[in-house]
Design brief:
mainly alpha, single chain
């Protein structure tokens, strides 16, 4: 009886692992397609030539990675507040608020650092346009999501 239970649990574990692996693979494919769309969108909207694109994309990807990291830190604190602010001791709330302020400072420093790096790669007008294109891309993605959900 115990052996049968162990076999069932093992089979179930393998099945769950397989499903997770397949889901992650599909997610990876979607992520790759999304990244390719973003590169095409930005390259076209910024009118990047091949030399600019070759230097721009590694720096921009580095910037996005660091920006995403700060976003995740901020999100974790916001989620903690939403979940349990009423239970948190004042000291913990104060520490979390201090972390939020530090994240804001880090975001400002990150922006300042990367604007300087982008200006070393691109003309100032293209650097300014980059921030417009980022907002345009967000709107583009939201529109695609709306269109997809309307077709279901």
């Amino acid at each position: 009886m115990n052996l049968l239970k162990l076999l069932n649990v093992s089979t179930l574990s393998v099945l769950m692992l397989l499903c997770t692996t397949v889901a992650n693979a599909k997610s990876g494919i979607k992520e790759d397609k999304l990244k390719a769309k973003k590169v095409a969108f930005f390259t076209q909207k910024l009118n990047l030539n091949s030399e600019e694109a070759e230097v721009f994309w590694p720096v921009y990807n580095e910037y996005q990675e660091q920006k995403e990291n700060l976003f995740e830190q901020r999100k974790a604190i916001h989620e903690q507040f939403a979940r349990s602010l009423h239970k948190m001791p004042n000291k913990e709330v104060e520490e979390s608020l201090d972390k939020l302020m530090a994240i804001s400072k880090d975001e400002a420093t990150l922006l300042e650092t990367y604007v300087t790096k982008f200006k070393d790669i691109l003309p100032d007008k293209k650097v300014a346009q980059l921030f417009v294109v980022e907002e345009d891309y967000k709107r583009f993605l939201l529109q695609q999501i709306r269109n997809t959900s309307n077709h279901r």
